[in-house]
Amino acid sequence: MCEEQTVSLVDVLEEDEELEEEASAVLAGSDSDHCSYPQGYVKRQALYACNTCTPKGGEAAGVCLACSYKCHEGHELFELYTKRNFRCDCGNRKFTDLQCKLYPDKDEVNSLNKYSHNFFGVYCTCSRPYPDPDDQVEDEMIQCVVCEDWLHSRHLGCVAPDCVELQEMICESCMSKHPLLWTYAAHLAGAAAQVKEEIGGNSKIDVANKEEQVDDVIEPSSKRSREEAEPSCKLKQLQGIGQNRVQSGAVFWPSAWRSKLCFCNTCQERLSEADLSFLLDESDTVLAYEKKGKNNERQQQGQDPLMSALDNLNRVQQLEIIHGYNDMKTELKDFLQRFAAEGKVVTPDDIRQFFEQQQSRKRRRVDAGHFYCT
């Protein structure tokens, strides 16, 4: 008879803490109680697609976090992580048999929303679901910051860096649709590595000189006149340096790369026409959204729910709750210490027995009478 597989309480708590942190990063930045529709096209929010209400073959639609809880409970939902500039569709014309419970007065359609195959539960260039029950390969999925599709790392056409969570990725398809991105990529996204590969890796001086040229372009000269109406175009200067990057595969961009793009009027207009203006906004990033979510979570954790509840009770009720809480804390500590001292594993039956004893003692206290305050 094989031994029962066990895990330590520390392992369970660490895993639970990690899952909670991931969830808060995505969800705490969005409102879980109120439909986001009145806010218009929200800069970035957690979204879901409902396969029960809008199955494949129908019109793509997305619902906000609150509507996923209140209006689509028990439905088959596709988690879309986050999307930018999206307005909640819940209950509009695309939902023939459902009315939004939180904000029913919606326009028939949100014309500025953008949809992809993600809204029907498939992702990547391979158009497969996630998780994929037929995929035997362990592979992470990475989101493109332009089209916001999720791609398997093996389908990117390049090797993903080790610190992928700290970098933004633009897929090969989006890079090819916007050629100006290749110019930036040659200088801002691993330019030195690309140049080294193309020249055979035997000229460190050339690589260093190339990087110095890029720095000179990225940081405008202090000699430039402050009265100059239109700053010089960084993009044109980068094009003048030359491009030494193979234009294939996805591109990973380092931290703060957006701040090094050209902000001249011509480039801003060009990015606007290509619907890429968000690249000039560092607060648009998923990392910025996750940071906001984590900060919201910390602020909420700072408000002790027990103390908030006690504030609404009278003195007698407060004493009863505090007495019960202190008793349980002391007894639980003693209970776990016995197992630790004997090197035993705490089983579900042990936990069940502990709380049954707590309930029994609680009943005895109630029978004995209440606390009174003079």
Please give the structural blueprint:
Elements: H1 9-27, E1 42-50, E2 63-64, H2 65-70, E3 77-86, E4 141-143, E5 150-152, E6 168-170, H3 172-177, H4 180-188, H5 191-198, H6 204-218, H7 234-241, E7 251-253, H8 265-273, H9 286-301, H10 305-311, H11 315-342, H12 348-368
Antiparallel strand pairs: 1-2, 1-3, 4-5, 6-7
Helix pairs in contact: 1-9, 5-6, 6-7
Q: How many strand elements? A: 7
Q: Please count the helical segments.
A: 12
Q: How big is the Rg?
A: 28 Å
Distance between the termini: 63 Å
Task: Give the SSE string.
Answer: HEEHEEEEHHHHHEHHHHH
Mean pLDDT: 80
Major sheet: size, sense and barrel closure? 3 strands, antiparallel
Helix proportion: 40-55%
Shape: globular
Report on this structure.
- There is one protein chain.
- The chain is mostly helical.
- The chain has helices spanning 9-27, 65-70, 172-177, 180-188, 191-198, 204-218, 234-241, 265-273, 286-301, 305-311, 315-342, 348-368, and strands at residues 42-50, 63-64, 77-86, 141-143, 150-152, 168-170, 251-253.
- β4 (141-143) and β5 (150-152) form a beta hairpin.
- α1 packs across α9 and α5 (191-198) packs antiparallel against α6 (204-218).
- Residues 191-216, 218-229 and 370-374 have low confidence and may be disordered.
Question: What is shown here, in short?
Answer:
By secondary structure, this protein is mainly alpha-helical.
